[in-house]
Amino acid sequence: MPELPEVETVRRGLAPVLEGARLVRVEQRRADLRFQFPPRFAKRLTGARIERLGRRAKYLVADLDTGESLIMHLGMSGSFRIETDASATQPGAFHMPRGKDQAHDHVVFATDGGAHVIYNDPRRFGFMDLVATEGLETCKHFGAMGVEPLGNAFNADYLAGRLKGKKAPIKAALLDQRIVAGLGNIYVCEALWRARLSPERTSGSLVRANGRPTEKLEKLTGAVRDVLADAIAAGGSTLRDHRQADGTLGYFQHSFSVYDRKGTGCPREGCGVEIRRLVQSGRSTFFCPRCQR
DNA sequence: CGCATCCCCTGCCTGC
DNA sequence: TGCAGGCAGGGGATGC
Q1: Which end of chain A has less neighbouring CB within 10 Å, N or C?
Q2: Run of H or E residues at A283
Q3: What is the pLDDT of residues A11-22, one digit of tens each?
Q4: Which of A48, A288, A54 is CA-nearest to residue A189?
Q5: Distance between CA A245 and CA A242 in Å, rounded?
Q6: Strand C: which positions are within 7 A of a protein CB?
Q7: pTM reported for the whole predicted model
């Protein structure tokens, strides 16, 4: 469940259950996900109270009353679900399919409120870490990270400074978390379409010789903000039957203009040209060859 | 240095 | 129906 809107949606789903809760039991079922868990992971968490559940880019950050923060990244296939005594008896309550899927339940957090928050991740590209809350912004995960795309620091002037002279295509630059942190393949494709910008345009070509942003770059920053805001409002995108923590489905995937829509007509009024797919840095790019220049 | 490629892992879909 | 190949929302390590 990975890009910023999906992680933000997960955060909002987990916050009511985790914020203010004390972890009475933590079960770590394997030694590693993408990386090894930190030493004594479960022990350092047990008994801790979660004061706040935040988000930085695609990371969830739970600030604890122990002076540490629990950092969680969902990789490509990570998801959380919440199980409570009540959810088992409520009519119409949602339940994840049992069986083989449970083989990928890697971590269970039990709260003093009686909830089980279960982390499931088939591909195991996600990871968890414990880091001192003080100086969190300079820790190894966040130290080199770029600005939040929904924050005030993300604007055309900032991007111009980071893209000036860069030869990499704009698609790659937007995926680079050291420049902007939180965008992934879907929302980069969608933002470029909204900005009518070719994914193959050289980053530096969007900056004037005097270092000022071009109009295209201004438009791109707005498109990034807008597509993220729209996606968050829709509860994120639900691909391959993933669900949010409370069992509901995001629905922004129905609003994709280009992502995973190769061969369909460009939805822009009066266009209709076939959406194409190309591969950039090993990843699919979807775009309209007519209206993205 | 910047940039592209490969790789980690499992599951699902396609085509033969 | 089985099987091989390709692809997937991420990002770290390598090599040019």
Answers
A1: C
A2: strand A283-287
A3: 999 999 999 999
A4: A288
A5: 10
A6: 7-12
A7: 0.95
